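ok trying again, last paste got cut off:
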Amino acid sequence: MLDGIRERFIRANQSSVQRRLTSEDLERINEMRANLAKGEAATRPSRYWEELNKMNMAQLNEQGYENFKKTIALNYFTWMRILPWDSQIVFLCKNLSFGTITRALRGAFTICRQSYFASLGVLQSFSYGFLTLLLWEYLFKLSPPAGMMALREPAEGNPPIVSPRPGMAVSQDLGNSLLEFDTFGQAIPATRPSTILELGAGYGRNAYTILSLRPQSRYVVVDIPPALWVAERYLSAIFPDKRIFRYRDFDRFDSVADEYSQAQIAFVLASQLSSIPPESVDLIINISSLHEMRRDQIDFYFEQFGRILKPGGHTYIKEWKVGKVLFEGITLSEADYRPPAGWTKVLNRTARVQTKFFESLYKKGQDAGL
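nice, full thing came through this time. structure:
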């Protein structure tokens, strides 16, 4: 029943009154969509993403790129909870003191008067604020390195900002990215360059965090439109001094290999993943998108991960323990994520805060695939 309600909600929000995207924006997004459709079947969106992207496009047209952190970001990994027994609220309240929870409540009542999400009302703003403030209090409790906690949310995209401490301008997305970095950051050496590839990067919240904390790294964003278009525009604006390999169609990777290898940030369609050179990536990341695909797609992407990951490299995934793929009638569990032979689990546990998720960090053996 709940799944049916969610499907009807997505279909009911696939049209817009305004047209905030320019003809050039739409032309580029449509070019990406056309080229994705020509690619391997396993890289084409699941029915869930076909329907969800119709809503994403409507939201971009209605509110514009300028407000994407208050619209399409809510369809990625930004949470608004209104029930006190929600699993994230329960985890955070169990791990924080009564005084800390009270302080977060006071802050949330201040936030709700700002009505961050005008189309949703003050209740959702309160819920977002309360959950986000609790998340940041939990991060303070973990005592991460000062450099992590010094990061601030970029103003690009008009984010819903909270201030867990005076003068702090942060967001829930930034908090979750720091929480995830606290898990997989060990796989990104601070003393030498690494190449990180993220499948399903959304608008680029993790790319921003990693490139800020490990500025010597290269980052490859692999996604489908309109997310790839948003991420390209966003990260290019946030890191104007970095060399960018902008998305483009190509028949042979050789024709773009030099430019790709010199870029510090690259944008690639999911259908182009099989063109990425073998054993060229140090860390692969997938957060909350493999569980929105069919099993054949999951198998395809793990096969590609095994091909492009360097021996000794790592892969981090964070997915629902049990997830239903809307519009497909498929239920996935942790057993459906089958890494290639020769990989070992460095870490496997219930995710912190999002306790309905599991997170795993794998390491590829030095002789795997040889």
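cool. The CA atoms of residues 34 and 110 lie 45 Å apart. The chain is about 40% helix and 15% strand.
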